Each structure stands twice: as structure tokens, then as C-alpha cells.
Amino acid sequence: MNILVINAGSSSLKYQLFDMDNETVLAKGLCERIGIDGHLKHTPNNGKPVFNEDIALPDHAVAIQAVIDKLTSAEYGVVSAMSEIDAVGHRVVHGGEHFAQSTLITDEVMKAIEDCIPLAPLHNPANITGIEACTKVIGNVPQVAVFDTAFHQSMPSKAYTYAVPHKYYDEYKVRRYGFHGTSHRYVTDRAAALLGKPVEDVNIITCHMGNGSSICAVKGGKSVDTSMGFTPIAGLPMGTRCGDLDVSVMEFIMKKDGLDIDAMMKVLNKESGVLGISGTSSDFRDLDMAAEKGDKRAALALDVFTYSVAKTVGAYAVALGKVDAIVFTAGIGENSASVRKAIADQLGVLGVAIDDEKNKVRGEEVDISAADAKVKAFIIPTNEELVLARDTKEIASK
Q: Which of 108, 238, 355, 393 is 20 to 30 Å from 146 by CA-CA measure?
């Protein structure tokens, strides 16, 4: 069974085609600058050449058609015809309270995704555009929506309820939703396998750390708390997002600098986080190099981030009661030995200890725990696309 996985942005479209008989990637690619001037990079994994050129991509439907053309072409293709693609899985950022699991896309599902646009105004419209473009190009092939928020629908009300008048939840569904759900779910399952136990029998804290970062407390395979909130701005300080903040800081800055709410939100989403603290970069590699050269603000940005992660992990140890393992994943979690060490060194009180030699690896699935550690520490590269493909196969096969 061949599954096409799509992650549509406002002007981009990432894709992978999986052979689900052995869960291998047949091809992957990226359409960029859709609606502007257009570029497509298509990489087949069968020895055929990479296509990497500017092409006209006036809209997402044209981009989808270009993807299909490359997947089925004699020169760059990996299948002979569109009929060999059995189903399409779409990443959808926000499912609100409508969806606690992935689902076959129907008119009713599309309406529910549209109803969630106010909760994710930058993401859900792009996801909808990708689904509609696929429908236009490929017709009646089954399509499945896989939601970033679905994994966190198992949180208890005490974890997702905000201390504001309850009418805002009743009327507008203002609550903690959490994100990165497919990533947290994938690495949880892998960590349980590495522990040699059923996922229902373990408690795991997963640290998805990239330009956007979130922590999740997973009890018996179910999310019971997570650091992102109503939107992805909450929780940890990130590349450019502020993370948790006393909301009165917004009022203070807006009055001082004469900012309206849109300008203030731009500051908090695009100019804050480790970029705002350091004043130089949102890239942790840049911060590492700058800190090594004596840049105090770069060092401070790293300290603020790693302290925030460790503090959140400590809180989630309380939420879980006991912790079997901590997982580091995503761009920073998989590749930054110094960030992992700085976090682990602050978690000794929980019984976390890592082996410095094992911790030198990048992007590999490995147990980096020290011999005397009471809590396991793993690096597990995330694979959100595979989660999408697996869910799509399961649902489309019914």
C-alpha cells in the first residue's frame, strides 16, 4: 500500500510517499514559494536523479499536480501511475475538541476543521487548502486528517483548564490544547519499545526541542499534560517565541512603545525567545558558538532555555508520580549534546544522569543514560511523517 503524506503551509507543501508494506520512503520533496514564483525539490529514493528547479506554482492545486507528475514520471518517478497511490494523509494543526484521533476526511470533517480556524488562523487555512487541492487533482482517493492536537485530548480538565471565567471555555473553547502531538506520540512508542515494556506500563516525559519546543507528560501512552497551550506560543522560550509570560508585561510594553495588539503579538511570536534574549540568533548552533566565545547574552539565552526545560520536566514528574524515561527529540533534542547535558545536569534530583561519551551522538536512536541512572534518558529522532502514514493506512484500509 502506497501512502502520500502531505504537510501544507501557506506558501509551501512538504510531501513523502511511503511504501507501507515495509514502511520505506519511496520519494520526498518540497514545493516552496507557492503563489509567488515557485520551486520544487523532488528526491526519489530509487537511484533516479533529484529534480531541484524553479517552476511555476501559482496555487496549491498546481503544486499537487507537479508532485504527482514527478512521482509518476519516467525520469524522476517511483510509481508508474496515480492509481498506485492508495491514500493521502494530511497534517492538520488544530482539531479543537472535535478530534481525539485521526479521521477519514468527509464534508463534515472539513466543516469541523474550518470551525477551528479561529484557534489556528495561520495553519488550518493552509491545511484546508492542501486538502482541497488534493481533492481537485486526485479525486476519490481516500484522504485522512492527522491532527497535531489530537494526542493531547486525553489531558484531564485540571491540566487543560485556564483560571479565567469559565464562560470563555463554554462559549469559545479557550483552554490548553497542546501541539507536536504526532511527535510526542511517536517517540513515546519508541521509548516504550527501548524499555522493553508495553506503552501502557510506562511513564515518559518527551522533550520536543526545535525552533518550536514543547514538553509532554505521557502516562501509560496518554498525554496528561503539555507545555504549549491555547496556541504554540506558550510554555518554553523557543527560537523566536516568548513562552510563558506574565500577561501584564504585554500591557506595560504596549503602553510604553505605543504598540497595538498585532504589533505586540509580532514581538512575542517573531522577535522573542532565545533570539530576543541573545539579540543575535534563534539558531542554537549560533548561540553555542557565541557562548563559547564569551557572549554573555548568548549564554544567558541557553541558560534560560535549559532551565525552563528542566523545570518543566520536574513539574511533570509530579504529574506522573514516577518517571521511567526522558526523551530528547527534534532538531535541538536530537543534535545538541550541550543542551541535553545542561538539562540532564539539572535533573539529578529525579535520578537522571547521562553518559558524556554516549551523549556525543547526533540524530541517532540511543540510550544515553549513565550506568547508575535511575531514570533512562534517550535520544529518539522523531518521525511525524511515519505516524501520518501509519494512521492513514489504518483508516483508509477499513
A: 238
